[in-house]
Amino acid sequence: MEFVDKVAFITGGAIGFGRAFARALGERGASVILADIDISAARETAASLAEAGISALALECDVADEHAVEVAVAESVRRLGGIDILINNAGKHLTKYNQPFGKLPRHEVRALFDVNVMGVVNCTVACQPTMKQRGGGIVVNIASIAANLSSTPYGVSKLAVRGLTLAFATELAADGIRVNAISPGLMATENALDDLPQDFIDDFVNNRQLVRRLGRMDDIVEAMLFLCSEKSSFMTGETLRVSGGYPLGFD
Ligand SMILES: NC(=O)c1ccc[n+]([C@@H]2O[C@H](COP(=O)([O-])OP(=O)(O)OC[C@H]3O[C@@H](n4cnc5c(N)ncnc54)[C@H](O)[C@@H]3O)[C@@H](O)[C@H]2O)c1
After folding, report:
1. Range of the domain at 119
2. Is 154 in the active site?
3. What is the pLDDT of residues 71-83, one digit of tens each?
4. Per-residue pLDDT tens over the stretch 107-159
């Protein structure tokens, strides 16, 4: 039970990667907080984790709302004693945000940046005092390979996540907090599969990736577990690409 006595605050924990992260950390002994804007889905997930013997707490939280984040973090500290691991996973994504800037209404661009960029700032700043007080902590940010091209509002928001990974690795190092990121490629989450046409998925897997299969939830979960563990204790400010080899290159 590698993460026994650890508390993990997972944003967007109700479904998709967030739910898989919560289960994986919970199965290894952590208490997990599912901080999600969709409280009914978060409660449902918390109940199914509890059935599996995992200590899980659902909290309503819009990561774009600084005050709501402070309240959720304070509530977590009050109920569970502190936070050791923060997974900045909540994000707006899908085709809508991969249109050119000129096509996406400005208020949508702002809302995207508020969640994908300011959400990471809000949650990391709010968790720093409790992590420092517990002698250190781990932050894992979920970026995307879309950051490599940065040709759309979504890609730019994820490039900012990579920048924040460097900034917070530097800012929080003295508190014993390591900050790393994962850059997933195209992954088989329900929302991604619902959103994308099958021919796009087939072309991506067969003509762009070097590993010719669709990315699985477990691929990202394993990277997250590694970054949360002592095995990565010499790593901070790093982004791990988990994408079947697309796009290849130095970055
Ligand atoms: N699925 C992919 O192929 C893929 C690839 C690369 C990166 N990512 C990134 O991984 C992360 C998770 O992706 P997913 O596919 O699991 O997403 P998802 O859409 O399946 O789930 C997102 C979760 O975040 C929650 N959420 C959305 N906005 C929120 C907010 N403002 N505050 C709190 N919670 C909020 C949603 O309610 C939901 O529970 C995102 O940051 C996404 O950009 C996904």
Report:
1. 7-187+217-231
2. yes
3. 999 999 999 999 9
4. 999 999 999 999 999 999 999 999 999 999 999 999 999 999 999 999 999 99
Count up the domains in the chain and report the number: 1
CATH number of the domain that residue 146 is part of: 3.40.50.720
Q: Can you tell me which residue has the tokens 């026994």? A: 4
> Residue 143 CA: which ligand 1 atom is closest?
7
- Kind plus residue range of the DSSP H or E element containing 137: strand 137-142
User: Domain for residue 99, yes or no?
Assistant: yes
Candidates 45, 89, 145: which one to mutate for ligand 1, based on the most atoms within 8 Å of Cβ?
89
Confidence of residue 249 (pLDDT cuts 50, 70, 90): confident
152 Cβ closer than 6 Å to some ligand 1 atom: no
Catalytic residue (one of 154, 164, 209, 214): 154
Residue nearest to atom 30 of ligand 1 (CA): 62
The contacts of residue 11 (CB under 8 Å, 6+ apart) are 18, 35, 36, 61, 63, 86, 87, 88, 89, 90, 119, 123
In a domain, 240, yes or no: no
